[in-house]
């Protein structure tokens, strides 16, 4: 009889342990719907994140950099705190990423966005499903592409909710939406025939550019400019090579330069001396701090590019815009650093 009581008591304890363990396990995960409409089970508390694309990385960096376990791009050691600049580089899923590296680091979640660009929603779904299969059991959460400069708020809000950083996300959204609305309102009344013609000079020679209407060019149009590169985008490419003769025929009013070395060379290079912006001193070097302000990656890092580009194109129209103040505020909110006045001047007047 005594043995039966002991047996029954031990059995009760075993069942209780199993039930409680199951309850604890259930509480350790939660079910969410990602921005593709997929149902994903994720840890209740997310402390470690890897991103499969640069836009997803820059967005996560701005909201919760302490949760990043690796980087898709190399961060500037000059403008990123050491603990972030020294993150291991894991690459971009679809191009340079190694799935074994992701599995070895084993983050709580992997964030993926529509970059590199998928042909359509079906292709995106198939790609994300394939990525999820390769990364099991790590959950893959899809966020909206994050490459359209007029459509960042939803992605910022989603990641803020996902990571428990709603206040940070809202501060970012307020800054972004205010500056976007201000610029769009001011340039809305500019007649089409009076809009500044812009050539984006990419690459080491300045003879690589992005076509009008692309995600990489939208910043020009948002700020009231006209991208002179009006050719059709080639499939699978973001940039296209052009000739100096083509640039001359486009006759831009302003040139935005990506490469600092080319920015120095264009002023004395005989090839460019007959181009109007070189003669009128309207060639501008696109700033880069933690991230580039205008181009790659085409994510929330370009928010500060809105006031910078607007002021470069229309200095008189935006003469009352305090760009230095906006730059300081942006870096505090989005990039978690404090810039001195001298640093800001050095960035804006290279």
What does this structure look like?
The chain has helices at 2-27, 54-63, 82-85, 99-105, 121-135, 153-162, 166-187, 218-222, 244-250, 260-265, 276-279, 305-313, 323-335, 341-348; strands at 29-33, 39-43, 49-51, 109-112, 140-142, 197-201, 208-209, 226-227, 240-241, 254-257, 283-285. With 350 residues, the protein is an alpha/beta fold. It has 2 domains: 29-169, Nitrogenase molybdenum iron protein domain (Rossmann fold, 3-Layer(aba) Sandwich), CATH 3.40.50.1980; 191-315, Nitrogenase molybdenum iron protein domain (Rossmann fold), CATH 3.40.50. The strands form 4 sheets. The protein has a 4-stranded parallel beta sheet. Strands 3-4-5 form a 3-stranded parallel beta sheet, with helices on both faces. Helix 6 (153-162) runs antiparallel to helix 7. The chain is globular, with a radius of gyration of 25 Å. The termini are far apart. Residues 5-26 have low confidence and may be disordered.
């Amino acid at each position: 009889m005594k043995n039966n009581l002991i047996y029954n008591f031990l059995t009760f304890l075993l069942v209780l342990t199993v039930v409680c363990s199951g309850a604890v396990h259930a509480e350790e995960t939660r079910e969410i719907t990602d921005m593709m409409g997929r149902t994903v089970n994720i840890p209740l508390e997310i402390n470690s994140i890897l991103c499969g694309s640069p836009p997803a990385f820059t967005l996560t960096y701005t909201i919760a950099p302490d949760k990043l376990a690796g980087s898709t791009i190399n961060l500037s050691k000059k403008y990123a705190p050491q603990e972030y600049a020294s993150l291991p580089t894991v690459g971009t899923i679809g191009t340079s990423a190694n799935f074994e590296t992701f599995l070895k680091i084993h983050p709580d979640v992997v964030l993926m966005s529509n970059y590199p660009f998928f042909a359509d929603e079906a292709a995106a779904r198939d790609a994300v499903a394939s990525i999820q299969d390769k990364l099991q059991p790590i959950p893959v959460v899809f966020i909206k592409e994050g490459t359209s400069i007029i459509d960042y708020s939803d992605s910022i809000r989603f990641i803020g909710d996902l990571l428990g950083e709603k206040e940070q996300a809202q501060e970012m959204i307020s800054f972004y939406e205010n500056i976007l609305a201000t610029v769009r309102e001011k340039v809305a009344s500019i007649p089409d025939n009076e809009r500044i013609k812009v050539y984006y000079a990419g690459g080491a020679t300045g003879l690589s550019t992005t076509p009008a209407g692309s995600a990489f060019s939208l910043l020009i149009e948002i700020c009231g400019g006209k991208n002179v590169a009006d050719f059709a985008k080639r499939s699978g490419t973001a940039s296209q090579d052009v000739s100096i003769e083509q640039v001359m025929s486009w006759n831009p009013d302003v040139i935005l330069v990506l490469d600092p070395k080319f920015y120095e060379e264009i002023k004395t290079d005989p090839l460019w001396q007959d181009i109007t912006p070189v003669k009128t001193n309207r060639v501008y070097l696109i700033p880069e701090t933690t991230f580039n302000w205008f181009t790659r990656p085409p994510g929330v890092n370009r928010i500060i590019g809105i006031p910078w580009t607007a002021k470069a194109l229309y200095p008189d129209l935006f003469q009352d815009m305090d760009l230095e103040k906006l730059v300081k505020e942006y870096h505090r909110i989005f990039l978690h650093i404090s810039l001195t006045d001298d640093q800001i001047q050095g960035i804006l007047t290279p």
